[in-house]
Automatic annotation (TrEMBL):
This is ABC transporter substrate-binding protein. InterPro entries: ABC_transptr_periplasmic_BD, Vitamin_B12-ABC_binding. Pfam families: Peripla_BP_2. PROSITE patterns: FE_B12_PBP. Gene3D superfamilies: Nitrogenase molybdenum iron protein domain. It comes from Chitinophaga alhagiae. Residues 2-290 form the Fe/B12 periplasmic-binding domain.
Length: 311
């Protein structure tokens, strides 16, 4: 059995389950451990380039309007690997290569692999994707062991919230800054597990452009900025896209110093383990008196100490 992963989240879960010996052929955005030892077969024309949020939005919008993909497959390398199965996705053709593009790359291969699309909508779907991966690799038991440990962590968060009678926090998770996108798919479920509610979100659906006036009316108590594909350092460089908008200083989250930057892979990379990490980080941000910063995850988020400044 040889598998290729065209989806960083699938790669992460394969490593989490200890099945990386079955993996060869990944994307340029896969986790560092995989990049250090696996061959990259999926690339992007934007790889290695530094564009602003506004430029990235324009490039991807133009590409989508023209029916083109910014991703491509190293077909000779994929033919040499000759995988039995390829994991791909259909959640977002902007974030990763999709099944259609994958089909175009593999139809001429002498050995036709099985294409397994992992396209979760909610948090339970993400957990089910781990089982799908395990089954496809002939290691279903590994998936159940993996998920049992993650469910224990989620149950621990829920039990602690109940024990402390922690109130729901009115929050917003922002998936993009220019234009502003709300959060969708599984992220609202992460928020709920962490003791918050995001009334601007789109549970189990796509994130969408959200007018600034709507955000001002909603006036979140806590604002978490986690643009897709951005680490906190990159988000900090573009905070001016928000702080210059009229009304920013009047937001309750800004006035009470509850604006945070967080790494994208806590939310928009749908691997079961990183999403549980995200729940634990959110629980700390929403209820710092109840939850300490999760061990080993303090580097994944930063607090905006005052308007325009990040600590």
């Amino acid at each position: 059995m040889t598998a290729s992963s065209f989806l960083p989240a699938a790669t992460q879960m394969i490593y989490d389950m200890g099945l990386q010996h079955l993996l060869n052929g990944i994307t340029f955005e896969c986790p560092p451990a995989a990049l250090a030892e696996k061959q990259k077969v999926v690339r992007c024309v934007l790889e290695g380039k530094q564009y602003s949020s506004e430029e990235i939005d324009r490039i991807f919008s133009a590409s989508k309007a023209q029916g083109k993909s910014l991703y491509y497959v190293d077909e000779p390398l994929l033919a040499a690997i000759a995988p039995d199965v390829i994991f791909t996705q259909d959640v977002c053709e902007v974030c990763q290569i999709d099944t259609h593009c994958t089909q175009q790359a593999v139809y001429k291969l002498p050995k036709q692999p099985e294409l397994v699309s992992l396209s979760p909508n909610n948090l339970q779907d993400v957990f089910n994707c781990a089982i799908t991966i395990g089954k496809a690799l002939g290691e279903e038991a590994a998936a159940y062991r993996y998920l049992a440990g993650l469910q224990q962590r989620l149950d621990g968060v829920t039990d602690r919230l109940r024990a402390h009678r922690a109130p729901l926090r009115r929050v917003m998770i922002m998936e993009w800054m220019a234009p502003v996108y709300n959060c969708g798919h599984w992220i609202p479920y992460q928020v709920a597990y962490a003791g918050g509610v995001d009334m601007l979100s789109n549970p189990a659906g796509d994130s969408i452009v959200t007018p600034w006036e709507k955000i001002l009316r909603y006036d979140p108590e806590v604002l978490v900025i986690a643009p897709c594909g951005f680490l906190t350092e990159r988000s900090a460089e573009e905070l001016h896209l928000l702080t210059r908008v009229p009304g920013w200083e009047q937001l309750q989250a800004v006035r009470q110093h509850e604006v945070y930057l967080a790494d994208y892979d806590l939310f928009t990379q749908p691997s079961a383990s990183t999403l549980v990490d995200g729940v634990e980080v959110l629980a700390h941000l929403f209820h710092p008196g109840v939850f300490a910063a999760p061990a080993g995850l303090a580097h994944k988020f930063r607090v905006m100490a005052q308007v325009g400044a990040v600590s």
